[in-house]
Specification:
CATH class of chain B: Alpha Beta
CATH architecture of chain B: 3-Layer(aba) Sandwich
Largest sheet of chain B: 5 strands, parallel
Oligomer: heterodimer
Largest interface: A-B, 34 and 44 residues
Radius of gyration of chain A: 26 Å
Order of helices and strands of chain A: EHHH
Structural class of chain A: mainly alpha
Radius of gyration of chain B: 16 Å
Number of strands of chain A: 1
Number of domains of chain B: 1
Chain lengths: ~70, ~200
């Protein structure tokens, strides 16, 4: 007896180029004005900077009860 | 019934039609879908970009046919709406007649829910995201493979966080009450691509 075929084909991962559309082209395609695009660029750069700072603080050793440097803690 | 409008010559290779509920509870996943798709260099398209009116259905069909891929999240909205399964049906039909022009993927919180609500899909793979943004990002990363550089989960999450942070400012700037407004969607797509290129060091 022949093996029953699935109702719909099994999905394979979709291979994409991963290349990004140039910002100006994307803005034009979306109908975003160049001025608004610049505002969004600035906003995202600022958010990225803030996020970097936040992560850097998180990674830095904490102060507090054991806030002394290792040398003075001895 | 007469044939509708013209069929686009070729679908846009990087365009992904997103089909999901426009629901308040869905906002984190909405942002995750936009972020995930943009992080792979693709451009999400949604029906909410289209104006209403008599020809809306024609425009939806044209939009689906203009996209090379589509992702469908069949999570049930609070207010029952039939648009999502209807648009999935349109997509399946488009893909059935021309599989090289369109590839579709189903996403759901739990794959068993799809089998329960839409048993016709039995046998097709479902990307289960667990109802969480991290799950959506993970499953998009499972569905898509990049030729040269695959964005890892750490980067995808960082991009998601940055876009989520931008959302209140975008809403305020656009004077929007809902995230599901065309102008807000467009700003989110632009912001997500910007965040992705910055995160991946592409200028």
């Amino acid at each position: 007896m022949p093996k029953r075929q699935p109702t719909l084909p099994k999905r394979q991962p979709i291979v994409v180029s991963g290349k990004f559309m140039p910002s100006a082209e994307l803005a034009q395609m979306l109908g975003i004005s160049p001025r608004r695009a610049k505002e969004l660029d600035r906003m995202m750069e600022e958010i990225h900077r803030q996020e970097d700072l936040r992560l850097a603080k998180k990674r830095a050793p904490r102060k507090g009860q054991n806030g002394r440097s290792r040398a003075s803690a001895r | 019934m007469a044939a509708a409008g013209p069929v686009p010559a070729e679908p846009q290779p990087g365009a992904v039609f997103l089909n999901f509920p426009y629901d308040r509870q869905f906002v984190p996943l909405y942002v995750a879908y936009i972020t995930g798709v943009c992080s792979f260099g693709l451009v999400p398209r949604v029906a909410l970009e289209l104006p209403g009116g008599e020809r809306r259905l024609d425009r939806i069909v044209e939009l689906i046919l203009s996209c090379r891929y589509s992702f469908h999240d069949l999570r049930r909205p609070q207010t029952p709406r039939m648009n999502m399964p209807f648009e999935l049906g349109l997509t399946v039909m488009a893909s059935y007649y021309n599989p090289k022009r369109h590839t579709w993927c189903i996403f759901e919180k739990d794959y068993r829910r799809v089998l329960k609500s839409l048993g016709d899909l039995a046998g097709s793979d479902v990307y289960s995201h667990g109802g969480r943004p991290i799950g959506v990002l993970r499953q998009i990363a499972n569905a898509l493979v990049v030729e040269d550089r695959q964005p890892d989960m750490r980067r995808l999450l960082a991009i998601y966080r940055e876009v989520k942070t931008a959302l209140p400012s975008i809403l305020k700037n656009r004077g929007a009450k809902s995230c599901y407004e065309a102008a807000v969607f467009r700003d989110l797509v632009y912001a997500a691509q910007k965040a992705a290129t910055v995160q991946m060091g592409i200028s």
